[in-house]
Amino acid sequence: MRFKKGSRLSMGSRASILAAAMSMTVALAGCSSGADASSEGKQDAGPVVVYGPAGLSGNLATSSKALAAGFEAAAATINAKGGILGREVKIELENDQSEPTQAVSLVTRRIAEDRPTVVFAGTSSAESLAVLPLVTREKLFSLAVAASPVATDPKTFPYNFSTSPVITTSSDALARRLVERGFKKVGIVYSDDVSSQAFVGEFKKAFPAAGLEVVAAESYAPDTVDVSSQLQRIDSKAPDVVVVSGIGKAPYVLKSRIKVGMGNVPFVGDPTQNGYDYSKAVTGEEAANYEGQAFTSATTTGGGSGKAEILKALADHQVKIESPVSLYGQAYDLLMLYANAVEQEHSFDVDKLKTAIEAGLVDKKFGMVNTDNGRWTAASHSLSADDLFTFVPIVPMVDGQFKLS
Amino acid sequence: MTTIIFGGLILGAIYTMVAHGYNMVLLATGSFNFSQAALVMFGTFLASMFGTDSGLNPVVVIILCGLVGAVIGVVTELVAIRPLAGRGSHGELVTTIGVSTILIGGVTLIWGESVRPVAPLVSDQTIELANGLVTIDGLILIAIAGVLTVLLWAWANFSMGGLASVAVSSDRAAAILRGINVNRLSLAMFAAAGALGGALGPIVGTQTLAIFTVATAITVKSFVALTLGGFNSFPGAWVGGVVVGLIEALTTRYLGAQYALLALFVLFLGILLLRPQGIFGQRPERIV
After folding, report:
1. Alpha-carbon distance A99 to A358, whole Å?
2. Best of A229, A279, A282, A323 to disrupt the B interface by mutation (most B CBs within 10 Å)?
3. I need a labelling partner for A286 at 20 to 30 A (CA). Which of A157, A184, A245, A278 fits?
4. Does the model's pTM come out above 0.80?
């Protein structure tokens, strides 16, 4: 998977809300046991079972497989260190083809038949929003990669935590970078899709707050192959820099930029460009004066203390790394977050774990991949951290990492 | 302004060439082949594989892509068109969309969803021309669209195959009675349109690179271009393509991207209302 997919689906689309509503209907229809079963029975003995639906086939198969590999790597690392409070960790993911209704069905059946210790709430926000009402009612701890504000709202889903960054983490990092480089006037060219619209909405708040002026914001159709006209409109406002947003679209923007003679204007890619290896898709002239926002862990020079361990575990499992390491890391870090909380609290009680994570974990037995400085608060269970992002030029990606010297 | 016009002409050239593929099949079979743009998209990926990955000469790449395209065209005719021939239900609209879906799915399965490079045809350098900027490959694309239009127009009007196609499009039953083997003609035209679609991959790919989403974008706009110019008319497809490309580029530049599609469909509706047969199309006459 690539960050683009996670981000695209994590923006709380109408479909997600519909799926959530459908899942609630299914849940209310009375499938499965009540909340009383919370932390009793199988949760207190035997292996720690992380169960979850994932789109192992279908549109999100690449992403889901990377997340599955990340979970397996985390389990291998934890088990090699003696497990969680001495209990072995087992990962059990089932294919829901990224269908929210199927995700709910799978989780419902699994809870009824063999209650897991922890639930992974699916690859996309739509799956998470469908599964979370049921999981919350069952008082199960859940892990998600969804960044949907609804899915990560502690008031709605108190036991769900996500390793997707809060959107303001991305926009603030980008604003800081632009200020650092001395820019004052910013143009934005963005894809007319949910993900980019959400980011650009945040940029329009974060940039002025950082003292930057947004002089132009031009959209383009998600399937467009030429943005020359949009760039000419932006160029007429004489920006110091142009921010590029649109899942995997930077090559088209960079080609158009040369066509309209904007090669001397710096371009900066936002998080929707994260995780793409553009090194073969653009020429040296097109790549010049461009840098893109990326997870620090997706570079050869950055990442948390768990990065070496995940790379070793993936190699041991003979996983061919086809996505940025940060994606595998999102799943890896979820399990490590849970494991660290349980180890610190010496308890599997979901309320204790929630409180401990929101207060900030002190004992971190297991290192994380994307950052060791992540924060999850009582206001949001999405990840916040100051060292999550960096900016990289167009360079080849090797083993899921941008090759920086 | 000139730079934007060049941009519009390049887009228009792409729409024109896909519309020509529509027209070739439409003439010979009366069927609308919605998989044509997907075939061009498939050709861009083949171009990436043969041209960029294997480093083959562009001419060889074009020939290889054309051959693969011809095979796909033949398979499309046999699987998606022939079983429906003569039924008059326009089921081919659905079956060719099915072929398009299969091609897009195949591409994502084989090459993934990321954009892939396509080697320049001659050069991707930008040059200054008439106070505007344009790439050399862009100019070549514009020229190819024009030349192709002339060649296809000449074929339709002066060659035996072209005249037979026009006869089939005018009256299929009468054409059969006159001894035209419509099945063989249909197969040949699907092969030719497929070869054209595949061969255009390395040419169009210089502007679009190789990405699966290209198919959807081109399908709709090429259809609008054809409607505007007139079905069965190659000069019409060219005029339609150029107009659509220019409207898209100029509207985006001077009004904003949000108005480009609106402008196109206002034009589309206007043409349907005022001249349903398109600028170069012929109104069918009823004999009572």
Report:
1. 31
2. A229
3. A184
4. no
